[in-house]
Amino acid sequence: MVTKWTPLACLSALERNNVLPKDQELKVALVVVNMPLGGMVDKFMALSNIATIKAYTDGGASQVCSIVGTERERYLPDFVSGDFDSVDPDLLNFYKEKGVEVIPTPDQDNTDFTKCLRIITSKQHIDKFDQIVAINAFGKRLDQTMANIETLFHVAKVTKKPVYLMSEDSLACLLTPGKHVIQVNTGLEADWCGLIPIGAKCTNITTTGLKWNLTDGQLEFGTLVSTSNTYDGSDVVTIDTDTTILWTMGIK
Predict the structure, then answer these.
(1) Which of 39, 133, 139, 170 is deepest in the core (most CB within 10 A)?
(2) What's the 3-state SS for 160-210?
(3) What number of other Cβ atoms are within 10 A of residue 192's Cβ?
């Protein structure tokens, strides 16, 4: 079985250069985590307008309000979830008054992001989207960035639908063992990409479509990590891996 990925389809749709077939409507679940959105204002507003479901995680609600100002009613989420230790109670009351579902998730063994994705991939919401895009997943704090990447491992256990972590200039997704085809022909791709063996040693990986391909290769911290790679001009990158690996790429 081959898993197909269209990482920048949500942005290419905004540019009227959609890589999906015209008879398919791209249904995006937008998740906002608690990291500054300063460099992603335009992306947030555009994705919010096309999202079929929107969720803010605890302090993510405050991040949104910090950039939309008096237009916060225009950018209401479908739900807000978390342990609510980093959001103004008055803001939660505002959301409640506007009919937004406020879902407490006090479990301290998981991040608010992980708990939010478990809600969004539940039976109640799973049919409302084709892919999840979480912004701004890479921020100023390395520990939170790593926690967001670790969340991809959790959500891979509950859904096969694509989950993308996006920042102003980067995107990442988790590739589970098997064959993958990644479309890289939207024109929005920056010239760098990488394969990161996070969580475990990658013992066998083969790629096409990259300037520096791997053939039955191994990736491991302290041995080899494929960073600062780029494309060979093909429309797709193919990856056949026996280990879960992180794909990351630049966004123009």
Answers:
(1) 133
(2) CCCEEEECCCEEEEEECCEEEEEECCCCCEEEEEEEECCCCCEEEEEEECE
(3) 15
- Give the Å distances, CA to CA, from 8 to 13, 113, 145, 196: 9, 21, 20, 19
At 177 the pLDDT is: 96
Question: By C-alpha distance, which of 54, 46, 49, 52 is closest to 15?
Answer: 46
Q: If you average pLDDT over residues 163-186, what whole number do you get?
A: 96
The rounded Cα 49 to chain-centroid distance in angstroms is: 17
Closest CA to 31 of 152, 185, 174, 177: 152
Contacts of 94-99 with C-beta under 8 Å, sequence gap 24+, read 95/61, 98/73
pLDDT value at 127 more than 60: yes
Distance in angstroms (rounded) separating the CA atoms of residues 159 and 163: 9
Q: Where are the beta strands (DSSP E) in the chain?
A: 2-5, 28-32, 53-57, 79-82, 101-104, 131-135, 163-166, 170-175, 178-183, 189-196, 202-208, 217-219, 226-229, 236-241, 245-251
In the chain, the amino acid numbered 34 is N
Model-level pTM?
0.92
Give residue 153's pLDDT. Answer: 96
Q: Are 64 and 37 in contact (CB under 8 A)?
A: yes
List 102's β-bridge partners, or say none: 80
